[in-house]
Amino acid sequence: NCWWIDPANGDEYVFATDNVPDKGSTAIWRFKVNADGTASPATKLKINSTAYIVGGISVSADGNKLGAAFPWPNTKILDIPTGNLTDRHAGGFGCQPNLAPDNSYRFFHCEGEHQGIMMSAFSNDFWFVDLSLNLAGAPAKSGMDFIAPRWSNHVQYFAATFPMGDNHNSY
Fold this sequence. Notes:
Distance between the termini: 22 Å
Largest sheet: 4 strands, antiparallel
Number of strands: 15
Strand content: 35-45%
Radius of gyration: 16 Å
Shape: globular
Structural class: mainly beta
Order of helices and strands: EEEEEEEEEEEEHEEE
Strand order of the largest sheet: 1-2-3-4
Oligomer: single chain
């Protein structure tokens, strides 16, 4: 689920998924958040697929693209106006998909071992980012799995948590 502010008029929206236990989500809904904190009736996004949505979602600054797993481990970008899906998957396992917070439509997802992320421009050209070498403050070559990398509101910065398990540390 994610929050988005329309840059054209400042209106605030929440994008949320429904939940089907042990399967994922079947739909993505967009709610306008009113000035008094209430929500307008939800709009169901058109998705030209019957695949379940699994994991987090993120929306581009212009509100035209949404990144998610349709379903895990197949990470894709949804074109919100048309409902069309574009593969943005580097092969193997892909999870924790993230769409850049600007309008570049850059995208990343965790690679299978959670030692780094696979990043791409708006193309199918991916490159590996080793989080143990490229994450400020993280112990170099820790061998621990990273989880939940997330872009900040600035495209040059992201954060991740490791190790998986009881003692999560954020960097």
